[in-house]
Design a protein that fits this description.
The chain has about 230 residues and is mostly helical. The protein has 10 helices and no strands.
Length: about 230
């Protein structure tokens, strides 16, 4: 029996992402050692902050789940590039604004909205809005708006740290560049698996179940964050 990557890509990819989500659900944020380095750094540290930004994206299960939903039915690279760019623009604007302006919003509430973004995209992929409301939301605007919330969610994590003022702007910009680099690398791996999965005959049959799982993961994220908000309040 010949091994076919396309046959196993789908069944492996989403459960793998969901396992990552489950494993990191209680630990999302910046690792303790990384946070310590960021708070003790002196002056401009471009390369270390780029590395930390890219590393953070590897554990950014909420961002990755949303992006999986965004590219799920995108077959042309120019469409993938457009939507990912919209997400990156929104993400970058609020990440930089949130950290540099000191604007603070409860992180549990922001992360709950991020969970809703995963639910939204899964429902959009399932065609729920057309069935329920007879309308199709502007998916490009939605990706940009949710990108703003995703960036602000990361900003709330960084606001918990006493980051040195010296070199702060350059370091945060470098961190954001690292996040985008990490996102591109992660997205590249996801696209390879998605392309193989979509070539298989099982894709049409499994796509519905995959988006239902995506929606469930989003609801779990929302519930987890709202529970944290109620406990902390």
């Amino acid at each position: 029996m010949r091994f076919s990557f396309s046959r196993v890509a789908g069944p492996i990819m989403l459960p793998m992402l969901l396992s990552l989500f489950a494993a990191g659900a209680l630990a999302h944020g910046v690792a303790e050692g990384d946070a310590q380095f960021m708070q003790q750094s002196s002056g401009t540290q471009l390369l270390p902050f780029i590395y930390l930004g890219a590393k953070h994206m590897a554990t950014g299960y909420d961002h990755l789940l949303f992006l999986v939903g965004v590219i799920f039915f995108l077959y042309r690279m120019k469409d993938v590039g457009l939507y990912v760019s919209l997400f990156a623009v929104g993400h970058s604007v609020t990440l930089l604004y949130g950290v540099l302006s000191g604007t603070h919003v409860n992180p549990y509430l922001v992360d709950a909205i991020i969970g809703l973004s995963v639910v939204y995209k899964a429902l959009d992929n399932l065609g729920a809005f057309k069935v329920w409301f007879g309308v199709q939301p502007d998916t490009r605007a939605a990706v940009l708006v949710f990108g703003l919330f995703h960036g602000f969610g990361l900003a709330t994590k960084l606001q918990d740290f006493a980051l040195p003022e010296e070199g702060l702007v350059a370091n945060i910009i470098a961190f954001n560049v690292g996040v985008e680099i990490g996102q591109i690398l992660a997205l590249g791996a996801i696209l390879i698996a998605m392309d193989a999965w979509r070539r298989s005959h099982a894709f049409a049959r499994q796509a519905f179940g995959a988006n239902v799982l995506l929606m469930v993961a989003g609801f779990v994220l929302v519930g987890y964050q709202l529970t944290g908000y109620l406990i902390e309040s």
